[in-house]
Amino acid sequence: MKTIDLVVPCYNEEAGLEHFVLETNKVIDTLPEYRFRYILINDGSKDKTYLIMKKLAQKFENVKYISFSRNFGKEAAMYAGLQHTTADYVVVMDADLQHPPKLFPQMIEALETEGYDCCATKRDEREGESAFRGLFSKLFFKLSNKMTDVKMPYGAMDYRMMTRQMVDSILELGEVQRFSKGIFSWVGFNTKWISFKTVDRELGTSTWKFSSLFRYAIDGITCFSVAPLRFTAVMGAVIFLISLIYIIITLIQTLFFGITTPGYVTTLCAVLFLGGITEMSIGILGEYIGRIYMEAKDRPIYIIKHSNFEEDKDIR
Ligand code: UDP
Ligand code: MG
To answer: Alpha-carbon distance 299 to 292, whole Å?
Structure first.
């Protein structure tokens, strides 16, 4: 019998977690030839998520949980979950039912009969998302596909089913600053993309703010590409060439015609323009140095406070 682990990061999901498990169980019951297991990760929730997880674990023996000592972010939660998987297939999904479990049969089919290593999802309609946010994410996908080796379609989501082999490859990338969408793509393997209409979150509220989305986009690009650094170098070279031409022209003018105008505007423009560019380049450099600094510290990606994986060890 094939086994399937469901990795579910949860942050302040008290309102919908039980509903999620009950709804997902309905789909699981239609697939009796597979053994499913939940790996719920409580990412330092401030509400009763942990208590609900414990209750669920008592009620259903296939519910495993890991509870962090604080909020480490969805990326850390996914990593922790993946590290605890042992199944033949692994699913990564959200706890808010925005990732419909009814796609499981389709995903299993892609892996088992169509020979894919991964079946991932993307959204084709972005209802419930503001025009501004939609525009921003389109721009992000365009930019990151251009600038990095990581190719993903517009609207790519984390929700996916992967083979054991692919999960093991993902776990080999132990970087502290994780950008899973990029990592999933970077490890390669054949991915089938299926799209579905997104639904609004049923219970609870989305915890992502626009500012965190912006951070996410910057991370997405800087984690997989040094193109911004190259861009600053190219920009410097172009400015140098232009200034050289300008210097020659002014020199000739001064030599043959003497100094005619005080050149206040030109000086001001040059100073401000170059100042701006220098600041920006330092900023881009800083972004990468910051990343090196965080990686160099090599801190653990997460810290576990409670987990019911320990209980298994006692039995053995
Ligand atoms: N999540 C998490 N840690 C966080 C923020 C979110 O584990 O710091 C989880 C959350 O519980 C949910 C998933 O990540 O299962 C996606 O979060 P959300 O629904 O808020 O984001 P969106 O659907 O808007 O991408
Ligand atoms: Mg959501």
So the answer is: 13
CATH of the domain at 205: 3.90.550.10
* Residues 92 and 41 both lie in one domain: yes
Any residues with Cβ below 6 Å from ligand 1, and which? Answer: 9-11, 13, 43, 71, 73-74, 77, 94-96, 98, 201, 206-208
For 192, the 3-state DSSP assignment is strand
Answer yes or no: is 264 within a domain: yes
Q: What percent of the chain has pLDDT over 90?
A: 32
Q: What is the pLDDT of residues 25-52, one digit of tens each?
A: 999 999 899 999 999 999 999 999 999 9
Give the helix/strand (H/E) hosting 122: strand 118-123
Amino acid at residue number 300: P
Ligand 1 closest atom vs CA 95:
15
Q: Whose CA is nearest to atom 18 of ligand 1?
A: 206
Instruction: Give the global pTM.
Output: 0.80
Helix 264-297 crosses helix 210-222 at what angle (to 10 degrees)? 80
